[in-house]
Amino acid sequence: MFPAIPTDGQVILSQLKSLRAVDILVVSSVTWALLKLIRTTRRHLKSTKLRGPPNQSFVFGLGKILQATEDRGAVYEQWAREYGLVYMVPSALGGTRVVLCDPKAIAHFYARETYTYILSPLSRNLIETITGRGLLWSQGDSHKRQRKLLTPAFSNAAIRRLTAVFYDSAYKAKTAWDNILESSSDSSIIEVQSWMNHISLDTIGISGFSHDFGALDGKRSTVADVFASFGNVKLSPLALAFFLLGPIFPFLMKLPTSRVLLARKLSESMAQISEVLLARTRQEKEGDMNGRQEDKSIIGLLIKAETDDAELHLTQEEVLSQMRVLLLAGYETTSWALINLSQDLETQARLREELLQFSNTDPTYDQLNSSLPYLDAVVHEILRLHPPIPEITRIAAEDDVIPLSEPVQTASGKLVDHISVAKGAMITVPMRSINRSEAFWGADAKQFKPERWLDEAGITGKAKEVQGHRHLLTFVDGPRTCLGKGFALAETKAVLSVLIRNFAFELRDGPDTKVELARGVLPRPKIAGEAGYEVPLKYLSDSTSRREVGHLYLVIR
Ligand code: HEM
Q: By three-state DSSP, how is residue 151 classified?
């Protein structure tokens, strides 16, 4: 059969149709470009022009250079030295980002988070892909409502009750390591990072959702597998270009690069688990009104909110998203501690001494908080040096004036004690850089030195001006400050106390081994010059705890 030959009328009609489509495309593109131009011009006119590093690429700004740098924090610090505590960095297609390193400016910024300073479309896309539309994705009143609802699950009383779960996980790891040691000859391999991830996953599973993932008992879980494989996905040049241009063309971040596909897989596997857990708990609670009213666990609060008509109602999508946020947030905090302690054996010995002298039993929640000053110092020094989220960028939703703690020179050479930012401006707070800045923390800022926390009167100058948990920006500040801060601190302390009391650690190639950052979902440690994320630690025979053991190599992948 032959295809029908179109008549003249049909040809003209189809030409008109395609013309119309082209017209629409051209008109929309011109309107989009004009609107962009008007907004950019307004932003330029209304914002204080600051000094900053020169641009090196119109298309990517300095994004490509920053992305290729191992320690962006050090680059931000260098720029702060050259241009002052607030400066402008060129971004994609002629745009700029204002970088805030000034403590007063940062406190002002955080106090206005979720209303004046909001997530960029790029961040929202990424968050939505991984966790859906829940607490992390929300802004303004919706964020306030969701946060208010979850807060009781993270009260001191709630975490005091959960401390036993933290110890259970730590002891499961200890027993498993003991078994590995007993069944091996003189050396064995343990992947530190994955063991720490297992501890975190089992802990949040039991404490948040009354579910034992069994990761510490060797059960495989898709969430853990997908999360681990994130570390091995390298950003291809195309994916990097999409990422850098994403702030201007957010749709690029939806294109199926390997990272996006993996993010979707992680999201799906977390959603599947969350749905099963929710269904099970709903069933258990059916008809048990008393239990429903009184249950302050995370899952209990979520289910109550789903059925409540009240002010704090959550949609089903929000409930599922909250669960995904928590599965992700509870991930891995302790590997860096083991590495830093293996690079500094004196500190490790001092910590062990404090723990052994304190008592043979596990410290209670209150004792972890206030009776073990050296453990507290080590944990805060780790949090200072290795914040898992190194920087955040937000968009100004309205014009604002940001006060400064000290005057800064503008591009025209004028000294100002405040800066104006216009609606649409991009603002970055480089938390890692400020946590490690020599101008803030002194000449030894890059060193692992827990002693600095023993007398907080010793924290002076600019560091003292930083608002945030113990002058750190690791948990950020303001309405989005980490909800799980108390949980994370107690869990890290409990786990470290068990591991350090029972084992001694050394790096395979000695304490001077250079460890650097590798990028997974979050920055991870890896040995400089080696493939993958392996950081082998040597587990030593430890006379202090009167144990006779062989050598155990702990590996972080
Ligand atoms: C050392 C470990 C941790 C660090 C350094 C940390 C840090 C952070 C940071 C920087 C944010 C803000 C993210 C943003 O605004 O984009 C955040 C948010 C959050 N964290 Fe953590 N976190 C840790 C552990 C945990 C744990 C264990 C939990 C829960 C069990 C948790 C729950 C949350 C939640 C729910 C949010 C969202 C808060 C909101 O948007 O209002 N975090 N965390």
A: helix
What's the one-letter identity of residue 416? V
Ligand 1 center from residue 485 Cα (angstroms): 7
Residue 519 Cα to ligand 1 midpoint, Å, equals 19
End-to-end CA, the chain: 62
Ligand 1 proximal residues by C-beta, below 6 Å = 135-136, 147, 204, 325-326, 329-330, 333, 387-389, 392, 474-476, 480, 482-484, 487-488
Rounded distance from Cα 37 to ligand 1 centre (Å): 37
- 111 vs 103: CA distance, rounded Å: 12
- Atom of ligand 1 at shortest range from CA of 136: 40
At 513 the three-state DSSP class reads coil
Fill in the amino acid letter for 106: I
Lowest mean pLDDT among 3-7, 41-45, 168-172, 244-248: 3-7
Main-chain phi, psi angles of 536, to 5 degrees: -70, 130
Decide: pTM greater than 0.80: yes
Q: What is the Cα–Cα distance from 266 to 227, expressed in whole angstroms? A: 7
Q: Give CA–CA dist 140/117, Å, rounded.
A: 10
Nearest-angstrom CA–CA distance, 113 and 479:
6
Mutate to test the pocket of ligand 1, among 115, 482, 489 (most ligand atoms within 8 A of CB): 482
CA proximity to 50, closest of 416, 383, 506, 396: 416
pLDDT, one tens digit per residue, over 259-285 is: 777 777 777 877 887 888 778 777 776
What ipTM describes this predicted complex? 0.97
What is the rounded CA–CA span in Å between residue 32 and residue 48? 25
For residues 49 and 87, the answer to whether their CB atoms sit within 8 Å is no
CA atoms within 13 A on the CB side of 437: 28
- Quote the tokens at residue 480: 């989005």
DSSP states of 153-188: GGSHHHHHHHHHHHHHHHHHHHHHHHHHHHHSSSEE
How far is residue 325's CA from residue 133's CA, in Å, rounded to a whole number? 10
